[in-house]
Structure formats: C-alpha cells, structure tokens
Amino acid sequence: MNNVLSRVAVATCLAAGLAMPALAQNVAIVNGKPVPMARLKALEQQMARSGRPVDDAVRQQLREEAILREIFVQEADKRGLRSSPEVKAQLELATQTILIRELFADYQRRHPVTDADLKAEYDRLNATSGQEYRARHILVASEDEAKAIIAELAKGARFEELAKQRSKDPGSGANGGDLDWATPDVFVPEFSQAMVKLGKGETTSTPVKTPFGWHVIRVDDVRKAQLPPLDDIKPQLQQQLQQQRLAEFQESLRSKAKVQ
C-alpha cells in the first residue's frame, strides 16, 4: 500500500513539474489550448506604443484580455467564421497593415536621424530663410475711408494714433497697428504682396483690399528671418526629417516596382 501511495505521489510531483514550464511559457490554457506568453507581450507593446505605462495592474487586465480573445476566437472558429471570404479578406488587410507598419519602423531604426543630420538641416534652413517684416496696418470698411487716412498721413498725422482711433482690427489697433515680426506667408496674399513691395519706413500709397476690408500698411523694418535655437525646435525638425526620409523610401520602392 505504501509503495502504491509513493508511486502516486511521485507521479503527481512529476506532472506538476511538467506543468510548471508550460504555465511559464503560456498565459493560460483555455479549453486545452495554450495562450502563449508572446501574445501578452504583444498586447503590452501595443499599449506601450500608445504612451500608456504598463504596471502590474494593467498587465493583469491585459492577461484577462488575452484569455477573452482566445475564448472568443475559439467560438468564432467553431462557427466556421475563419473560412468566410469576407473574414479572409479582412485578415489579409490586417496582416498587410501590420507588415507595412513594421517595415516603416524597421527602416527608421536602420536610418536614424543623427545630431549631425539635424545640425545640417538647421543650417540649410537658416541659409535659405527669407525676410521678416515688422509692419503696421490700419483696417477700415471702405476704400474711401482708407484713402482719407492716406491723405491724413501725407499731411503729417501719426500712423500709430490713427490706428488706435480708426482701425477695425482690435488686436493690432490698440497697439498702434503693430503686427510684430512676421514672414509674408502669415498674411493673406493680397496683404503680403503689397507689404513686400515696401521698403523700410514706407507706407502704401493706395488702399489694399483683402477679404477683411481695406488696409493702409506701413513697414517699420525688414530683417532676415530668424529661426529659434536648434534645441528649441529639435523634436519638430527630427520628425520632419524622419517623415521626409520615409516618404523618399516609399517613393523609391514604388518607382522600382514592376506594375502591369
């Protein structure tokens, strides 16, 4: 009797010992089918990519999600849904999406944007940057009113005072029409086209019409456009270069492909 009990105990221990590695490799066993630990890791990585931290509480929630997914997929397979043409097409699209995403991620890992790349791009932008204008304007409702203001300025009226008194633009009007430093692309085309024709200290001799009304414009100063310090714009510059390189990679693949 003791020998029988000993053999049962040994068998139980051996079974438990064999089960432990299996459990270590799997999240759980659902209806006899293992749910591999790799599936839980994939869910954790997916959440980490979204920016959410994965702590023990979240990991437990993801474990339950992995188990539920297996239960639901098993039920779908029982109903033969995997062989449905619609499901097959959707699975193919999902596979393509994942592979494409990983292809692009792999390309970016193999072609990182270095500090030297960022410095070179920053220097290029600085060298090719255009002009900045420190301009003022007076915005009114009619052409006749704008002409009257130009006539008053010609007689010696101060631009800043007329802007405070007459401009319909409350933001700049209160500051004497001052629009601060800006590049021409900030303004609507009609405004910027008139502004860039002016030299330092010059005022438009005729009213300028835009969708906002009629403007009298004066340029107080002009300078070469100045970029913020490299450290301040490094994240945006890095993202821009990454997107540019990725677009070039996509275009190179498209151009080399034989499409019939």
TrEMBL record:
GO MF terms on file? peptidyl-prolyl cis-trans isomerase activity
Please give the organism: Tepidimonas fonticaldi
Describe the reaction catalysed, as an equation.
[protein]-peptidylproline (omega=180) = [protein]-peptidylproline (omega=0)
Keywords from the UniProt entry: Isomerase, Rotamase, Signal
Q: Which family does it belong to?
A: Belongs to the PpiC/parvulin rotamase family.
Signal peptide location: 1-24
Q: What is its EC number?
A: 5.2.1.8
Cited Gene3D superfamilies: 3.10.50.40
The record's annotation in SUPFAM superfamilies points to: FKBP-like, Triger factor/SurA peptide-binding domain-like
Q: What class of enzyme is it?
A: isomerase
**Pfam families per UniProt:** Rotamase_3
Q: Which domain of life is it from?
A: Bacteria
Protein name (database record): peptidylprolyl isomerase
State whether keyword S-adenosyl-L-methionine applies. no
